[in-house]
Design a protein that fits this description.
Helices cover 17% and strands 32% of the residues. With 283 residues, it is an alpha+beta fold. It has a nine-stranded mixed sheet with strand order 1-7-9-8-3-4-5-2-6, with helices on one face. β11 (219-222) and β12 form a beta hairpin.
């Protein structure tokens, strides 16, 4: 059973009698469908619908846990505090919390308040995220990156820049990270319009190179025109944030798609439900 400790993570604990209603009205995740023992992705958007903060949300006793980037934790705390007003909510940051991941363990006994199942991935993988405990054995973090790539699970800052991407761009609508039924949240109007009009132009796709891929941040091009950016990389596999209409044009015309000077193939993650556009979308 692979098990590793993640670096660069921090935990925000949101507690108090108004905690759930408070977050439900702000973040993209539908907390009404978040069961004990589960972890889902989520985001806090700006009014224009772009992701300011990403996190993984789970229940922690009577409160909620937001697992986020250590570099974002203090700013997320400040932003949530701005919305707090008179709500009976307490928010604290634990920047020293140990975050660990395990997978391929068939036991369900790990599902407690401190260990939850990561619902971004197929259940058969049994990917669990554990908070606290003893540090795991020294399993290299690239193993986790490779697993994320196989299933098209994007994370900032490797795969996109906070403040510059919509939830659809990074496939949050595919992994349970954004709800179109729960009602209002910050940026909801823009995101719902993209959903109902089908106007999402960028997506995270799986990148497979003819050889080892270049570094994260390398431009992805077709016919000498930039169509996206390479994100997480593990050998010849990676993730790319790309314009899917331009990918479709390149595929239809037989044009080579490159990451730097490496020929690549782009594919929709197998568990995701979106498709390439039928016709070229207007810019």
């Amino acid at each position: 059973m692979p098990r590793l400790s993640l670096s660069g993570r921090a935990i925000l604990n949101v507690t108090g009698e108004d905690a759930e209603n408070f977050l439900q009205n702000l973040i993209t995740t539908d907390l009404d469908t978040l069961h004990a023992g589960d972890l889902k992705p989520g985001a806090l958007l700006n009014p224009q619908g772009k992701i300011l903060f990403e996190f993984l949300v789970s229940r922690n006793g009577d409160g909620l846990r937001l697992d986020t980037l250590q570099t974002s934790a203090d700013d997320l705390l400040k932003r949530l505090t701005l919305y707090k007003l008179r709500a009976k909510v307490q928010i604290s940051v634990d920047s020293e919390s140990l975050v660990q991941i395990s997978w391929e363990d068939e036991s369900d006994a790990l599902e407690t308040d401190s260990t939850v199942r990561d619902r971004r991935f197929p259940q058969v993988l049994n990917i669990m995220r554990c908070y606290g405990g003893e540090p795991a054995a020294d399993v290299p973090e690239p193993m986790w990156t490779a697993l994320r790539i196989v299933h098209g699970v994007a994370e900032a800052p490797m795969d996109y820049t906070l403040g510059d991407a919509f939830p659809h761009d990074v496939n949050l609508d595919q992994t349970g990270g954004v709800s179109f039924r729960k009602g209002c949240f910050v940026g909801q109007e823009v995101v719902s319009r993209m959903q109902h009009r089908g106007t999402a132009r960028k997506r995270i796709l799986i990148v497979t190179g003819a050889s080892d891929l270049p570094a994260t941040g390398t431009s992805i091009t077709a016919n000498e025109r930039e169509i996206g950016t390479l994100g997480s990389v593990a050998g010849s596999s990676g993730l790319g944030l790309v314009r899917i209409d331009r990918v479709k044009d390149a595929l239809d015309s037989g044009k080579a798609i490159l990451a730097g000077d490496i020929p690549i193939h782009l594919a929709i993650p197998s568990e995701h439900r979106f498709t390439f556009p039928e016709a070229k979308q207007e810019a």
